[in-house]
Amino acid sequence: MRILLPQGGTEGLGDWGTREQGNKGTQRPAQDGQGDVLCPTPSVPQSPDLSVPQSPGLPISPTPAIFVELCEDDYPGWLPIGDLEQLQIAPEFYKAPVLSPEEIQDRLPAAIAFAKAAMKVPHEYLWGGTVAPNYDCSGLMQAAFASAGIRLPRDAYQQEAFLQAISFEELQPGDLIFFGLPGKRTSHVALHLGEKRYLHCSGKQGGRNGIGIDTISPDESSVGQFYYKQLRSAGRVVASYQPGDLDSFEFLA
Hints:
alpha+beta; 4 helices; endopeptidase fold (from Nostoc punctiforme); six-stranded antiparallel beta sheet
């Protein structure tokens, strides 16, 4: 995880704020020889109010937070400053795996096996879920490919942008299928298993509140019909995500 700070914005961070810092997108070792996770940037959004609503009449204390990004996929978020004490400086800088299309092809069976195994354990759909047992659609895809050493961006629309676009006629096992309402950005993703069958984690609205298998067909189950109407595109994983690959996208939109 990278911690993003405005220039000079280290107040309240203790030792975290005194380590040597580089510009956003660069990482330099701290003076003690350990990895440095601080990356200052002049355009960090204002910290949100992370306070929990209380009963009327009681004071509400905002929780100071800092802007962070996950090294694996550049995904942003807010971390309460009080949680810094639970973190450790990485012994070395994150190095994203570099894989050829052939290497990725060899690893696809492992990603498919992971997704099928996740379907067999008790679970439910969890919006924002990225770890077992409860996932959302793109969280399951990200976890399945990560289990095979392949990194993907976090959200469905980002995964669609990152993959190599293919036609539905070109679909092979391990490709991804994307769904979305007209005029809206892609909002759902599934893993193609072959013969137009796909595995995905769907919510309660139009879905099954969990992981299941459907078919690209207008005559499918109610879940399949719901997503068939939103069928949008297909893509093939030909690379493992590298930090900065989607810099042109607005991750917080």
